[in-house]
TrEMBL record:
Annotated InterPro entries: HypE (IPR011854), PurM-like_C_dom (IPR010918), PurM-like_C_sf (IPR036676), PurM-like_N (IPR016188), PurM-like_N_sf (IPR036921)
SUPFAM superfamilies the record matches: PurM C-terminal domain-like (SSF56042), PurM N-terminal domain-like (SSF55326)
PurM-like N-terminal domain segment(s): 33-138
Boundaries of every PurM-like C-terminal domain copy: 152-304
Lineage top rank: taxon: Bacteria
Protein name per its UniProtKB record: AIR synthase family protein
UniProt cross-references to PANTHER family, sorted A to Z: HYDROGENASE EXPRESSION_FORMATION PROTEIN HYPE, HYDROGENASE ISOENZYMES FORMATION PROTEIN HYPE
Family affiliation: Belongs to the HypE family.
Amino acid sequence: MRKGKLSNEKLNDLVLKTVQTSREDVLIGASIGEDCSAVAFGDTACVLSTDPITGTAEAIGKLAVNVGLNDIASSGSEAVALLLTLLCPEETTDEAISGIIRDAQITANTHNVAIIGGHTERTSAVNRIVISVTAIGKNTPTGIVKTGGAHAGDFIYMTKWAGLEGTGILAVEKKEELQTVMKSTELEQARQMLVYTSVLKEGAIGKQCGATAMHDVTEGGVLGAAYEICEASGLGCELQKMHIPIHPVTEMICNHFLIDPLKLIASGAMMMTIAPENAPALEQAFIADSIEYAKIGVMTEATEKMLVYGDFEVEEIKEPIAPPEGDALYDVLD
C-alpha cells in the first residue's frame, strides 16, 4: 500500500462515513479538505487542528510547531497553544529529545504561542522520531475562514513555492545522492527551504483582505490543495501551470528523482481564493510584507478541476487534476 495520508476516497469510506457531528456547538466537523475543526463557546470559537510529522527528523521540533500553527492560520484564527506528542525510537538520546523540545519552544516563542502539554516516550513502535502536534486557536464563530468558502470567479493565489517542504526534506534525507548532481551551494539552498515553513503572515493578510478560502499546501502538493479547496467548496478550478512558482533547486531535485513538484508537500506555501475586486489589496499586502506570491488560477462554476498548459493569450491545453493519492515525497523515501 502507498505511504502517506489516505486518499480522499479511502478517507471518506474508512473514516468520515463513521465519524458524525451531532452537537450544535460544533461549528466545523470532520470533512475532506478542511484544515481545522471548531467548537463554539458562547461568543468565542475554539479552533483546533492536529498533524503528525513523519517525513524527516531534521528541525522536526520547529517543523511540528509551524505545521500545526499553519492550519490555525489557514482558518484566519489567532494561534494560542500547542500540545506535542513525541514518540522516539528506543535508542534516542536524552540530548536529542531535549534538542527537539528546545527548538519547538523557540519556534513557539517566536509566534507568541504556548506549549501547554503533551506526551513524550521511547518506544519500539517507531523506527524514527514522530511528533504529533495539536494546535489550538481562537476566533469568533462567524470569523473563521473555511477551506470550503470559495466562490465561482474568485482568483486563486499561492505564496512562496511548490514543493517547498519536500525540497528541504529530500535535501536532508537524500543528501549523499544529491551531492552527485547538485553543487554544495544548491544543496544547502534546498535544505534552507525548511526555514520558510510558516504561513502565519499569509493567514493574517488573507483574512484582513477578505480571502474567501485558505488552505496550506501540505501532502499532495499544489494540485492536492487545489483539489481539496474545490471539493470543500463544491466548485471547480482552472490552474495555469506556467504561473505556479517552482524554485530552481526544487526543479533540480524533482528532475533527478522523476517526481512532479506540483504533487510534492509544500508546508510554508499558502493557497487562497479571493474576489477579483479584493485582489489588488491582497497583492499590495504581500508586496509590503515581502512575501513571494503568484496568481495561479480561477475558481469555476463547473466542478471540473483543470490544469491549463499555455498562457491566456495562446491556445490552451487542459488536463483534469486527479484526486490526491499520497505525496511524491514517499515515492522517493520508500
